[in-house]
Amino acid sequence: MRNDNTTYQDGAFFQRDRAWHPPALTPDYKTSVLRSPKNALISLGNTISEMTGPVFGHAMIGPLDNDLIRNYATTGDPIGPRTIVYGRVLDENARPVQGALVEFWQANAGGRYRHKKETYLAAIDPNFGGCGRTITDDEGRYWFRTIKPGAYPWPNGVNDWRPAHIHFSVFGHAFAQRLITQMYFEGDPMIWQCPIVMGIPSREAVETLIAALDREASLPMDTLAYKFDIVLRGRRSTMFENRREGN
Ligand SMILES: [Fe+2]
């Protein structure tokens, strides 16, 4: 159950809502059959090193780390729709989470990842690496520039395709505090045909993963913008995929 009856105030505790997240075993998403736990989960306490470090700082971020159009380019800009993705990282009380390391990775405009295990026949773009990172500012804001990724096929059912998406990781104050999710693009019909997305129980939860086209934040004659807020817990919590496995 979600926290619809909870009084929203500072310090209110929000139980993790497991009904908001997909069951670990969703057979239409075939790899979940082997990945899902077969035994009862064991709760492990954090160690001191997991709790205390590292702490991320702005000094570790390079000037092009949040610019996927330029951070791998050598002979020119990558091919594809120029895109801004921006938003805020918020806690369960809608307070900004500042200083959070946000990482993102994605396929290129043809739906091809730059990864040694990638087998899709779409071309590699020599000017596109497909990953970046940034740290949220005092208002919890993040921003990056990229090209819109393409859909790609994957070996699941006979003809399954992933909708265009960007993978996100949000770190807390230590490596043991990490949440991972995926962002989709408003208006994409492929979202509702994806076996991974369809593993999420409610349409409302899926919609937390869909970035809204924001014409006001777009740059005329240059770049379209999509807005994606990430909410860590509570009534408007983003659906994080690593909770599937009970982590
Ligand atoms: Fe992907």
What does this structure look like?
It is a single chain. The chain is mainly beta and 247 residues long. It has one domain: Protocatechuate 3,4-Dioxygenase, subunit A, CATH 2.60.130. Helix content is 6%, strand content 23%. It is built from 3 helices and 11 strands. The strands form 2 sheets. Strands 1, 2, 3, 4, 7, 8, 9, 10 and 11 form a 9-stranded mixed sheet that branches. Strands 5-6 form a two-stranded antiparallel ribbon. The radius of gyration is 18 Å and the shape is globular. The two termini are 19 Å apart. Fe (ii) ion binds next to strand 7. The site of fe (ii) ion (FE2) has 3 residues, from strand 7. Residues 52-234 form the Intradiol ring-cleavage dioxygenases domain. It holds the Pfam family PCDO_beta_N. It is an enzyme of class 1 (oxidoreductase). Keywords: Dioxygenase, Oxidoreductase. This is Protocatechuate 3,4-dioxygenase beta subunit.
